[in-house]
Amino acid sequence: MRLSRYFLPTMKETPSEAQIASHRLMLRSGMVRQSAAGIYSWLPMGLRVLKKIEAIVRAEQDAAGAQELLMPTIQPAELWKESGRFDDYGKEMLRITDRHEREMLYGPTNEELITDIFRKDIKSYRALPKTLYHIQWKFRDEVRPRFGVMRGREFLMKDSYSFDLDYAGARRSYDTMFVAYLRTFARMGLKAIPMAADTGPIGGDLSHEFIILAETGESQVYCHKDLLDIDVLSETVDYAGDLSPLVERFTSLYAATDEKHDVTKAAALGDKLVSARGIEVGHIFYFGTKYSAPLGAVLHGPNGESIVAEMGSYGIGVSRLVGAIIEAYHDDAGIIWPESVAPFRVGLVNLKTGDADCDRVCGELYGTMSGRGIEVLYDDRDERAGVKFADMDLIGLPWQLVVGPKGLKAGVVELKFRATGEKHELSVESALARLAG
Ligand code: 5CA
Fold first, then answer.
1. What confidence tens digit (pLDDT) does each residue in 94-134 have?
2. What's the CATH number where 361 sits?
3. Which of 89, 140, 184, 378 can pair with 93 through a Cys bridge, CB separation 3.0 to 4.6 Å?
4. Which amino acids bring their CB within 6 angstroms of ligand 1?
């Protein structure tokens, strides 16, 4: 992509409405624009990151055996009356009446709708277990939408729902998602710690929030220091095998949100206790028959008996993750994207647009990288070098490849790694080789 043609409205000034770094940086780097309180448009650069995050979430869900479908954003109120949540959900639910005076709502979550789909088509115990998921916009009329996409009213969630025949099966499905979540967040460069948590309006009696530690987090959390040292991606995961040892490595160490905090247990950890602020990026629940019983998701068992499906649900805040990753990866100059979610891998900077040599070499580099599938944003604007450097640091692409007239005379270009600021002068060929690796 050529920056001269790209829709990337960056800002030098810090927007006054933004209280935390990620919100400021998302506005300044032209990723999102607010259209109403807690409701955002995703501009091209922001959307690229959102899609990258979505792709990692999807890949890990698929690897764990979950199947993707897509449910609508608008749901009929009747289903929620069947579960009893229509009244319980209160003011957070956006209620809508259609032209036929039918009560509808903009889905804040999908337990009822998925149970309805399941009960209509799945009748035999042979069809289980099943875990279904979708990645879809939700609406919650939050009292205090704030911090940009971190606590929005409209937000993108990945939500999965598991159906099993008994507790043991449901526990297995829970553990599968537990492990898939560990891997998902690790692939984004995040250390998300599973913590014992309250179940709130979703219900049930087993639940973990996946929390990343950050000063600007909305919740107070406590955990054992050793949890921060487990390297999840170095573990071999076999979803057909026994996942409980890995799950136990996490759950055997103390970790709790404020609501579940046990002062005595925490005190016993001594200097191993970490007390910090955290951002909830995922939340998983086991709630047995809370929805399947009232909605009648009942199966024929092997001996003609009736079995009420055992369920769990598993959410990831896909749009919240964009902000959460920036909270974890930024400095005074801007964002520092981990490679796995970066909107482009390389920012190609032409220090002197209009100079025949610079234009030619940049054109060649741009063509070669694009041809090799390296995602590159080419700053071909007629701007001062200072402006170009500042914008590149702000948008935080992992690599900056800088081409200037002086360097070219000496036969070199400069490759900068945004995360460390490390710079190397290299020949064009060596720079390309580095970037391809
Ligand atoms: N049905 C369950 C699991 S599918 C559920 O709705 N869980 S939840 O309420 O915990 O939401 C799942 C995730 O969505 C949260 O962990 C959080 O990361 C994200 N989320 C929740 N509310 C918001 C919000 N207002 N803005 C942005 N992300 C949110």
1. 999 999 999 999 999 999 999 999 999 999 999 999 999 99
2. 3.40.50.800
3. 89
4. 109, 111, 140, 142, 151-152, 155, 157, 159, 202, 280-283, 285, 313-315, 317, 319-320
